[in-house]
Specification:
The protein is α/β, with parallel strands linked by helices. The chain has helices at 30-38, 88-100, 110-117, 123-134, 138-148, 151-175, 186-215, 229-237, 280-295, 332-335, 361-372, 386-404, 409-427, 433-440, and strands at 8-11, 18-26, 48-53, 59-68, 79-86, 104-105, 217-223, 255-261, 264-270, 298-304, 314-315, 318-319, 325-330, 340-345, 348-352. The chain contains 14 helices and 15 strands. It is flat.
Length: 447
């Protein structure tokens, strides 16, 4: 892949009004554009207080310009940072002027993509940039920062080097089969493969909590009207997010709140109560409730335990029994049921609580994490993405095939090569254009 030649520009701070707005320019024309905009001879890594001028001589703003010369910059190219006042009119006028001077507007993630293409970071580190920005909890931020520092990449590179050293011996025996360089006993080959699989499996186990950390989880509260869904949302969120009344059908639309449980960001979604109704607005609310439940990571079915027969959720022609689900037996302060984990209900784990008194909530939070498959994180947890885990699992599959084919030197060498190639996709040692497009298109503009 050839290095980009166009000069790009974008705002690096969020839209809206703020004290400072930062605009970035990267590419071969950055120095020229910076000096035309400021009318100053900019020195590398020197903050220059200056006016920003349009080509017609008018002053666009007063701020600070900082030039970073290649390769000592974020992108590895000449890079200019303009620190302006944070009003949207000012930022837009500066960007328009940069466009007139020859810069083009950057696409999402293009600055970080250039950093990857110019060898400033590998692909796993580049993805960690987005994870750091998008982290919703302190724990997720710490894990993302470890990946950004190259922690995860070092593990992958170490495994790859381990495979490579073994491949050298195997492939040398292919090239010089009449006079083997170094005979390897079958028992040694099997032992090596098992050792490599163990290392990869350990890394996968450490990555799974990190995958959930990077994306967060979506939990949808469903149930009949007045079962206590809104009260439960408020209790878990520790805030009055939803209106709670004794009138059935108060909640008509989806309402959400994000909470953190042991560092995992969970988006809770309160929904309209499910019942037969001729009300058009309420019916639409129920349709949205079912749709949200079908795409959720976990469904929490809230039942009123004071009802004689708190039936399961089979309403409006939908059965969510196949969903990852918890049944919450609410209002147990009135029904007299013992708080905490209860016998399964319709094949799903059940917890007895009172949303108004908070009794049983600690037990519910533990069951939520268990059903989401989150075991907590430690200092060795890897902030990984689904594609990273898929690549490691493919590498393990090739090692499984190597175990079967170990008597055929050619096939053994090929399975080792494919395992190493799968790992190379994680760090970007092996890349395809489509993969880069998918990854960087999810970034914010200006990063």
């Amino acid at each position: 892949m050839s290095a980009p030649t166009r000069t790009i520009a974008a705002r690096a701070t969020p839209p809206g009004i703020g004290g400072i707005g930062v605009v970035r320019v990267s590419g071969p024309e950055s120095l020229r554009i910076g000096q035309e905009l400021t009318g100053r001879q900019l020195q590398p890594r020197e903050a220059t207080s200056t006016a920003f001028h349009g080509q017609d001589g008018r002053i666009l703003d007063y701020g600070i310009a900082i030039l970073f010369k290649a390769p000592a910059s974020y992108t590895g190219e000449d890079l200019l940072e303009l620190h302006c006042h944070g009003g949207p009119v000012i930022i837009d006028s500066v960007l328009a002027e940069l466009s007139d001077m020859g810069a083009v507007f950057a696409s999402p993630g293009e600055f970080t993509e250039r950093a990857f293409l110019n060898g400033k970071m590998d692909l796993a580190q580049a993805e960690a940039v987005a994870d750091v920005i998008n982290s919703q909890t302190e724990v997720a931020t710490r894990c993302a920062l470890r990946s950004l520092s190259g922690n995860f990449s070092k593990y992958i590179e170490s495994i790859s080097e381990n495979i490579d050293s073994f491949r050298v011996i195997i492939e040398a025996n292919i090239d010089f089969s009449e006079d083997p360089v170094e005979e390897i006993e079958h028992s040694v080959i099997k032992k090596k493969i098992k050792e490599l699989k163990g290392i990869i499996n350990d890394l996968i186990d450490r990555s799974k909590p990190g995958e959930l950390l990077s994306t967060g989880a979506e939990v949808v509260l469903i149930g009949a009207p007045n079962a206590g869904k809104s009260s439960l949302l408020n209790t878990l969120a520790r805030a009055e997010r939803a209106i709670v009344t004794s009138m059935p059908g108060t909640t008509r639309d989806l309402l959400d709140a994000t909470i953190s449980l042991e560092g995992l960001a969970i988006r809770l979604i309160d929904t309209a109560g499910l019942r037969q109704s001729e009300d058009e607005i309420e019916a639409e609310g129920m349709r949205r409730a079912i749709a949200a439940a079908e795409r959720a990571d976990l469904v929490v079915e809230v039942r009123d335990d004071t009802q004689n027969d708190p039936s399961g959720l089979e309403i409006l022609g939908h059965d969510l029994g196949d969903q990852n689900r918890i049944v919450v037996l609410n209002k147990c302060d009135l029904s007299g049921r013992t708080f905490g984990t209860a016998e399964e209900a319709d094949g799903a784990p059940a917890v007895a609580i009172s949303a108004t008194t908070r009794q049983g909530i600690d037990a519910l939070e533990k069951v939520l994490l268990q059903q989401l498959g989150y075991q907590g994180v430690g200092e060795d947890t890897i902030m990984a993405r689904r594609r990273h885990i898929d690549a490691m699992q493919r590498a393990n599959s090739h090692l499984d095939q190597a175990m079967i084919q170990f008597e055929s030197t050619d096939l053994l060498a090929e399975e080792f090569r494919l395992a190493q190639r799968a790992l190379g996709e994680i760090t970007g040692e092996v890349t395809v254009e489509d993969l880069l497009g998918d990854i960087f298109s999810s970034f914010c503009i200006g990063k």
